[in-house]
Amino acid sequence: MSRPAPSWRRRWANNFVTGLLVLAPAYGTFLIVRFIIRQINRIFDPVVRLVDPRLTAWWAMPLVHLGTLAVFLVGVALIGWGTRLLLIRRIFSAAEQGIARVPMVGRIYSAIRDVAQAFGGEGKAAFSRVVLVEWPGKGRYAIGFVTQEGRGEVQAKTPEQVVNVFVPTTPNPTSGFLILADRESLISLDMSVEDGMKLVISGGVVGPAVPSPARPGRP
Q1: What is the mean pLDDT of residues 14-33?
Q2: 101-140: burial string, b at 16+ Cβ within 10 Å, e else
Q3: Facing residues of 187 across strands?
Q4: How far is the C-alpha of 87 from the C-alpha of 40, rounded, in Å?
Q5: What is the pLDDT of residues 31-81, one digit of tens each?
Q6: Which residues are within 8 A (CB) of 51 and not within 5 positions of it... i.e. 6 or more apart?
Q7: Which of 122, 109, 130 has the alpha carbon at shortest distance from 173?
Q8: What gap in Å lies between CA 124 and CA 105, rounded to an integer?
């Protein structure tokens, strides 16, 4: 027996929720970019004030702000390129070691650096595979990323073979929960770490295509 078609109100509500989930990452990106631009303008504010009296055209000031943004983007790209050179890499390494020795500041810097490396292109190896973990309760599952096998005191005091699983939040995957899960309770997924991140960030809207199982009588 076929189910009745959903009412227009339910269809509208479903479409509205889907639209919110699609717009959420874009809005989050907009907020981050706007924050960065404001900080750049604040850094270059003395330069802007210096040339402000000489700028009379209505388009001059937006052009100055655009120029400061371009300088910032090129500067960051040059820093990224410079880290590939051995000499500059050693300079950055020495600077990082110096910052790490500063009380409190070193801890904050190390934590932010570790998170950035974990989610950056060179740090994707921090997540070995994607799994389903039964969390936060029975019959509920969350996307998780295995970071490493349980070891040390944690493993010594648990009867099961535990695995460290990072369960990120949606749509901000840089925050989440560390789950020490029984290896046997995890459900391994075939999707890549990148596809798993897309699934989390989009709230389940964007994810890898799953082939439909063959029906009886079909190849």
Answers
A1: 71
A2: eeeeeeeeeeeeeeeeebeeeeebebbebbbebbbeeeee
A3: 132
A4: 28
A5: 777 787 777 777 777 766 666 666 656 666 677 777 777 877 787 777 777
A6: 64
A7: 130
A8: 26
Residue 199 is predicted with a pLDDT of: 86
Element at 177 (helix H, strand E): strand 176-182
Full set of structural domains in the chain with CATH: 12-119 (no CATH), 127-201 (2.30.30)
The pair of three-digit structure tokens given for residue 218, joined into one six-digit string: 């079909």
**pLDDT for the residue 117:** 60
Helix (H, G, I), strand (E, B) or coil at 99: helix
Contact 133, 144 (CB under 8 A): yes
Q: How confident is the model at residue 152 (pLDDT cuts 50, 70, 90)?
A: confident
